[in-house]
Amino acid sequence: MQRYRFLSRFNYLARNYSHEHPQNELKTRCYCRRWIWLNTAVSSYDGETVIAGDHILKSRTFIWAAGVKGAPVGGLPEGTLLKNGRIAVNQYNQVEGLDGVFVIGDVAQMMDEAHPKGHPMLAQVAMQHCKLLAENLKAWAQNKAPKPFVYKDLGAMATVGRNKAVVDLPKYKFQGFFAWFVWMGVHVIQLIGFRNKLLVLINWSYNYFNYSRDIRLIIRPFSRKSKTDNL
Fold first, then answer.
1. Residue ranges of the domains in the chain?
2. Angle 166-167-169 from CA coordinates, rounded to 5°
3. pTM score
4. What's the CA gap between 96 and 88, in Å, rounded?
5. Cα 32 to Cα 3: distance, rounded to the nearest angstrom
6. Cβ-contact 14, 26 below 8 angstroms
7. What is the pLDDT of residues 87-131, one digit of tens each?
8. DSSP secondary-structure letter at 224?
9. Residues whose CB is less than 8 angstroms from the CB of residue 101 and which lie 6 or more positions away in sequence, other chains included
10. Superfamily for 75-153?
11. What b/e string do you get for 28-49 counting C-beta neighbours within 10 Å, with b at 16 or more?
């Protein structure tokens, strides 16, 4: 019998969601609540044994989701490249100490009172960065004052299984099949062009009714070495 463990070093499963019922839905969909360990950090894994605090788990399959980190960029002023790989920018997405150099999206860390650690790494943040920066570049070209960036939180959504999703909006929070339908609709609407929308709907419909779970990965053959191979 296969068992799945979900370990998080924090007291929540998803950082960008509220700690109300969307988190509970995520917990419910992770096969079983008792296999979720919060406030538990993984310290090592040798291919067979996972060390997580006082817990020792035997597993030959281990998925480490440690987040993302930006690639280092040379030539930046001292102090602008932060430890997490993000680049410190001002309210106009401009790199501190550099004129005419702008950073947008996940790699930009714009800190304010509401977001002392920077904005969340979400598509909406990058889209709002792009829109405002384009307007500000036009304003500068016309010798007009630029507008500072103010993040508008539109909420977050995630699918957590077949017919299951969570939607965490500023005023409304819901889950289940309707949330899954909303998640699907929003993603289709965001696509560019009617042809793309139609093709995605057809592919999703086919996969839904045929339970297709094709893995679209290109990987090299892998065979696990036994301990006797190293002798």
1. 6-58, 75-153, 156-210
2. 155
3. 0.69
4. 7
5. 10
6. yes
7. 999 999 999 888 889 999 999 999 888 888 889 888 889 999 999
8. P
9. 94, 95
10. FAD/NAD(P)-binding domain (3.50.50.60)
11. bbbeeeeebbeebebeeeeeee
